[in-house]
Amino acid sequence: MKKVHNFTAGPCVLPQQAIDAAIEALKDFKGTGVPVVSISHRTKEWEDVMNECRALWKELLGIPEGYEVVFLGGGASLQFLYVAMNFLENKAAYLDTGVWAHKALKEAKGLGNAYAIASSEDKNYSYIPKGFEIPADLDYLHITTNNTIYGTEIKEDLDCPVPLIADMSSDILSRKVDVSKYTLIYAGAQKNAGPAGVAVAIIKKDALGKVTRYLPTMLDYRVHIDKESMFNTPPVFSIFLMNETLKWLKGIGGVEAIHEINVRKAETLYAEIDRNSLFQGTAAKEDRSIMNICFVPAPGKEDLKDAFLAFAKERGMVGIKGHRSVGGFRASLYNACTQEDVDALVECMKEFEALNA
Predict the structure, then answer these.
(1) Contacts by 299-304 with C-beta closer than 8 Å and gap 24+?
(2) Is 157 labeled as catalytic in the residue annotation?
């Protein structure tokens, strides 16, 4: 098989260990003689997977008592509506740091009084707003911790006087998180936690049931907690791969170990972007994401964009074209992306500079 270096923003690179386990499970799931994609979610074998996956989330993130972990279909985009349905009663604020934060706010506005407490739209979302006041009468403050399109990241847990809700879709499991500071953390799996098709929600249970609106059954977090994520048929294959990905992460030392690896990968690539005469970064340096590294041609070198994409493709680089809304380049260094992958991209950039400087 051709050797490639996968920097796609999502669905993204997965650990080979998880892929190999999935291949075997597609042949025969746990000795049942049935492929995992055909197994009944009511069997003991499947319930064991669900229980193990839930336990791994709690262990890897140090989730305290009083929080529940649920697995839901629809990805993080459906969670935008879940959040507002379950928590918005009077007023909510959103930190507007990019496309996904903006979309989450749109869903909340459709249900009630929600507004952007601060925004970095004025500079094309190239930084994280700071120094904003958080009113004490908010039902919640919503943040998006990592912004895949613009390459910015909130790297520390905020001290927040109101319930804090976070979309961690693209940096969950990449660093330690003090879960106790959050009322809800949610994430689509397809960055660090598995393939597309499932979202995880980590919910402070006693924060639920406070809204007076009617909650449709499928949009009520309490239903999914009570039914242990099996009110309806769960996305079995996606959860299976998520479980295998978490097992891999635990095996290499957990979030503390992967954070060190991720920081080293990001520093390697940012150093080359800053050194190379053909490229420049787009995010404010203090807010640079360690997950999504965004850069563009240096001033006067814009005509080299397509040439570099073709050059990189020839050398096995996959998925480095920037999001269509911003252009340029983007390398996503999610957990399963290796230092070897990053080193290969850096060498590619150096070689391209030597040919075009």
Answers:
(1) 301/277, 301/356, 304/278, 304/356
(2) no
Render pLDDT for 82-119 as a digit per residue (tens, 0 to 9): 999 999 999 999 999 999 999 999 999 999 999 999 99
With contact defined as beta carbons under 8 Å apart, do 288 and 94 qualify?
Answer: no
Contact 107, 84 (CB under 8 A): yes
Closest CA to 295 of 263, 328, 338, 319: 328
From 46, 57, 191, 265, the catalytic residue: 191
Residue 331 CA: distances (Å) to CA of 54, 112, 167, 240, 296: 30, 37, 21, 27, 11
**Which entry of 139, 167, 171, 287 is annotated as an active-site residue?**
167
Catalytic residue selected from 96, 100, 171, 265: 100
Strands 5-6 and 199-204, how do they pair? unpaired
User: Can you tell me the distance from the alpha carbon of 3 to that of 23, in angstroms, rounded to the nearest whole number?
Assistant: 19
57 is catalytic: no
**Domains assigned to the chain:** 16-251 (3.40.640.10), 255-356 (3.90.1150.10)
Angle in degrees, CA 261, 266, 271, rounded to 5: 130
Q: Is 165 helix (H, G, I), strand (E, B) or coil?
A: strand
Predicted pLDDT of residue 12: 87
How far is residue 95 CA from its own chain's centroid?
17
Q: What is the pLDDT of residues 312-347, one digit of tens each?
A: 999 999 999 999 888 899 999 999 999 999 999 999
Asked if residue 188 has pLDDT above 80, the reply is: yes
Q: With contact defined as beta carbons under 8 Å apart, do 73 and 218 qualify?
A: no
For 306-333, the DSSP string reads HHHHHHHHHTTEES-BPPTTT-SEEEE-
Residues 184 and 87: beta-carbon distance below 8 Å: yes
**248 is an active site residue:** no
How many CA within 13 A on the CB side of residue 80? 19
> What six digits make up the tokens of 304?
């080299």
Under a CB-based contact definition with an 8 Å cutoff, are residues 98 and 119 in contact? no
What is the distance in angstroms between the CA of the first residue and the CA of the last residue of the chain?
34
Amino acid at 281: G
